[in-house]
């Protein structure tokens, strides 16, 4: 099997256009996420912090079903299931009908995602090797990338990052989410009740049967999805796993005789705004509210090996893992970066990968008891590491922004009346515009 001649080259125009629509939705969600986290952080350190804690700890739901959860738990167990449902849809679509169905094109983001998770985990373990097994429980916290937060940074700095780079970042984050949910299911499930887990197969199977028959009726599908979620939650496995499993059952390819998009694309269009605009920001609101004074003071927090492992894992580990994996793929396949790109672009993208938020905070809650001092240290470490990674990525990408602005202007001038840039109508994918 031959490898592509260039890495991070442009894909097909339909895929670029679809990815662009997704990124616009995620960018808006990222701005809402940042705003929600900022409000929570300010509120938790204000004279009204008790009100914030009481709101987070307010219990609602039927106790008979063990669903008398706090609002914070509903946000992490319930709303994030929607987030992972959309991630499951996107991952399946990418590898079934997207440009990444070609193993040669899938290799780079998958390798970068794996490297971008392995190196931060090793750095965290190095910082906490002598701190005991309790501290080591958080090894997976700095492994996640928050695509919404990263895209919000791109929107704020107004960079003209090429479409291929944005697509790479999105795909890396989606694979990252899949690996994260596997880690959650395997390493952060403390006990499993077999009966509820086996019973969850029944509504999941019925849901799969209906969607395979292209049934879209919400009054049939939503109750089955809810029952699946309840049973998975009751089993002891984190309930967000149900979201991914449900997403994987939805067919991607539409029937030949049917007009319009496939069912996976239809569901993604419906649920992505709910995920990016409601589920993730609400989770961020309840997860990011940490009292600096309550965490033992900023000095004590920054001196904790858990905090240091998270910060260095996100900033140094992510950039080393993503950049290093990309370089290794280039080295062993003898491919070259697409025209107009250089390794500074890859470094900027790798630094963006260090913006870990949603899944990092979720894993932190699973690794350490919610509301504990160490959990507060996790939140500060994630916030600080993400902020430093965002600032460094901003510096690198802004330096390259002038070059990419000129490239974008050239593509716009070359567009025909059909609105499709000429570079997508001639030549093999992967051949970018001319370099500087």
UniProtKB/TrEMBL annotation:
Which residues does the annotated region (Disordered) include? 408-436
What Gene3D superfamilies does this protein's entry cite? Na+/H+ antiporter like domain (1.20.1530.10)
Question: What are the transmembrane regions?
Answer: 27-44, 64-86, 106-127, 139-157, 169-188, 194-211, 218-233, 239-256, 277-300, 306-329, 341-368, 380-397
Membrane topology, as annotated: Multi-pass membrane protein
Q: Where in the cell is it found?
A: Cell inner membrane; Cell membrane
Q: Which Pfam families match?
A: Na_H_antiport_1
Q: Which UniProt keywords apply?
A: Antiport, Cell membrane, Ion transport, Membrane, Sodium, Sodium transport, Transmembrane, Transmembrane helix, Transport
The reaction(s) catalysed by this protein are: Na(+)(in) + 2 H(+)(out) = Na(+)(out) + 2 H(+)(in)
Against NCBIfam families, the record matches this protein to: NhaA
Q: Report the function annotation for this chain.
A: Na(+)/H(+) antiporter that extrudes sodium in exchange for external protons.
Recorded hits in HAMAP family, A to Z, give: NhaA (MF_01844)
Q: Which family does it belong to?
A: Belongs to the NhaA Na(+)/H(+) (TC 2.A.33) antiporter family.
Put simply, this protein is called Na(+)/H(+) antiporter NhaA
Species classification: Bacteria, Bacillati, Actinomycetota, Actinomycetes, Pseudonocardiales
């Amino acid at each position: 099997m031959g490898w592509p001649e260039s890495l991070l080259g442009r894909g097909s125009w339909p895929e670029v256009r679809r990815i662009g629509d997704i990124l616009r939705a995620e960018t808006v969600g990222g701005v809402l996420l940042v705003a929600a986290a900022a409000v929570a952080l300010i509120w938790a350190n204000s004279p009204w912090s008790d009100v914030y804690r009481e709101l987070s700890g307010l219990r609602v739901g039927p106790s008979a079903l063990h669903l008398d959860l706090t609002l914070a738990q509903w946000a992490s167990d319930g709303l994030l299931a929607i987030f992972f449902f959309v991630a499951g849809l996107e991952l399946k679509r990418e590898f079934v009908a997207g440009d990444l169905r070609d193993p040669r094109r899938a290799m780079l983001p998958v390798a970068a995602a794996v490297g971008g998770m392995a190196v931060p985990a090793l750095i965290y373990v190095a910082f906490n090797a002598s701190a005991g097994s309790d501290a080591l429980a958080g090894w997976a916290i700095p492994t996640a990338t928050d695509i919404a937060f990263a895209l919000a940074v791109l929107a704020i700095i107004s960079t003209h990052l090429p479409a291929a780079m944005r697509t790479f970042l999105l795909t890396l984050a989606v694979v990252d989410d899949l690996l994260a949910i596997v880690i959650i299911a395997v390493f952060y499930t403390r006990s499993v009740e077999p009966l509820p887990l086996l019973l969850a197969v029944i509504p999941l199977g019925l849901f799969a049967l209906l969607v395979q028959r292209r049934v879209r009726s919400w009054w049939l599908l939503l109750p089955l999805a809810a029952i699946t979620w309840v049973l998975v939650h009751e089993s002891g496995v984190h309930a967000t796993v149900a979201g991914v499993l449900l997403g994987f059952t939805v067919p991607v390819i539409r029937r030949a005789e049917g007009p319009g998009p496939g069912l996976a694309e239809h569901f993604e269009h419906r649920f992505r705004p709910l995920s990016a605009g409601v589920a993730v920001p609400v989770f961020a609101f309840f997860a990011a509210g940490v009292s600096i004074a309550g965490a033992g003071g900023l000095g004590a927090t920054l001196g904790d090996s858990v905090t240091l492992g998270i910060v260095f894992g996100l900033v140094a580990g992510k950039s080393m893992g993503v950049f290093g994996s990309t370089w290794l793929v280039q080295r062993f396949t003898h491919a070259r970066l697409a025209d107009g790109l250089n390794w500074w672009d890859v470094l900027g993208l790798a630094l963006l990968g260090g913006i870990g938020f949603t899944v990092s905070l979720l894993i932190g809650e699973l690794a350490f008891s919610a509301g504990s001092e160490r959990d507060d240290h996790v939140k500060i470490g994630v916030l600080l590491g993400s902020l430093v990674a965002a600032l460094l990525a901003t510096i690198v990408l802004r330096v390259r922004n002038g070059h990419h602005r000129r490239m974008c202007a050239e593509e716009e001038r070359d567009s025909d009346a059909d609105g499709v840039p000429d570079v997508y109508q001639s030549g093999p994918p992967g051949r970018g515009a001319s370099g500087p």
